[in-house]
Amino acid sequence: MKKWMRSIGLTSVLVAGSLLAACSSGDSGSSNGENGSADDVVEITLSGWGSSPAEQRIFEEIIETFEENHPHISVNLDIVADQYMDVLRTRLIGGNAADVFFLEAFEAPALMETGVLEPLDDYITDEFNVSDFEEPLIDAFTQNGTLYGLPKDTSTLALFYNEDMFEEAGLEGPPETWEELEEYAEILTESTGQYGFGVVADLARLMFIAEAKGGSVTQDNLASFSDPSVVEALQPIIEMKQRDIAGAPSDVGADWGGEMFGQGRTAMMFEGNWTISFLEETFPNLNWNTAEIPTIDGENGSMAYTVAYVMNKDSEKKEAAWELISWLTGPEGMELWAGAGFAFPTRTSVSDELGLFDDEIRGPFAKATGYATVWADDTNLPIIYNNFNNEFLSAFLGQRPLDEALEEAERVANREIED
């Protein structure tokens, strides 16, 4: 996740994978049916992407715990080393995809539309309590009222701020509104000689801001970011850059926002929870804190990046596949995974159990899961994403007015979609 956000690229660039084979009978442990007799072990496969060695080791241990508690199921874990979505699509077309696999919200709309995913509504019982999941995260894997995936974890954005720079500027506590953010950015820039606010000029970070005034980045599977409401919402960022109180990581030779903040080149930055461990490990002497992102017109906002477990519609072991999905996304399995600290749980009860809402550093990220804009809700988002980024950057760098840049981006994106 950290590597992905450094590139600030398509969520689909998150390469890696993990594959899993397991065996078992269905939810009820019935002695007959697709899963064989009670003495049989059903082998199923789980595909995902690789991550850090520590993450992979913990995930493997969690799968082992599942198998210990479900001895009738054996899980084969396969790590897709690169180009995960390309590999997955090839396997789906070839009819040899895993029974269960990871699916990012960014890729979900297009894949749900193809009919290759098994709807999960008929598997879910009242006891499973799907209402315990944060609503925006469930919605990301729902299409036309049908649920196709259960979110395994999530990451969100919050405000990182440098407490020493705030003290130097005579500021107490983080800004709570966008107007205060702009005021603080100016004061901090003047007092510290560094940027008051760091900006990653990327739709994956800016979508919630772009839609804060009632506009929409996409509509009917087409780009719609020339909407005056979108332009109005994003214009303050352009103006902060023009006033030289906001800058991008590239302005200071940094690769990504966390590095820019860690180097003390900006006093404030919207970044994800993956930045916490990066700062602790790389800049242990930095004095910093986090807060919820300042409100815009009184409304909270953030971005959420989430991944779900989904079931292959062609799987011949659906009962065992559901048993695995339901355990991994149930309170026990999710607490084991989220408790490792790599990502945040998608169930409110698990966040409560882990004390995340009350955690000084992690609390703002946990709270954001309930209102964040999920990074994906359109089958053509990859095309829209690329064109937005190209033209927004030109406006951010002062090469053309924002309204003209977004008009051009929308025109080109929709032409590509129609072609």
TrEMBL record:
Subcellular location: Cell envelope
CDD domains: PBP2_UgpB
Leader sequence segment: 1-21
Pfam families xrefs: SBP_bac_1
InterPro entries listed in its UniProt record: Bact_solute-bd_prot1, SBP
GO CC annotation terms, alphabetical: cell envelope
Gene3D superfamilies linked: Periplasmic binding protein-like II
Domain of life: Bacteria
Keyword entries, A-Z: Signal, Transport
UniProt keyword Electron transport, yes or no: no
Family to which this protein belongs: Belongs to the bacterial solute-binding protein 1 family.
Name of the protein in question: ABC transporter substrate-binding protein
Organism: Halalkalibacter alkaliphilus
Organism lineage: Bacteria, Bacillati, Bacillota, Bacilli, Bacillales
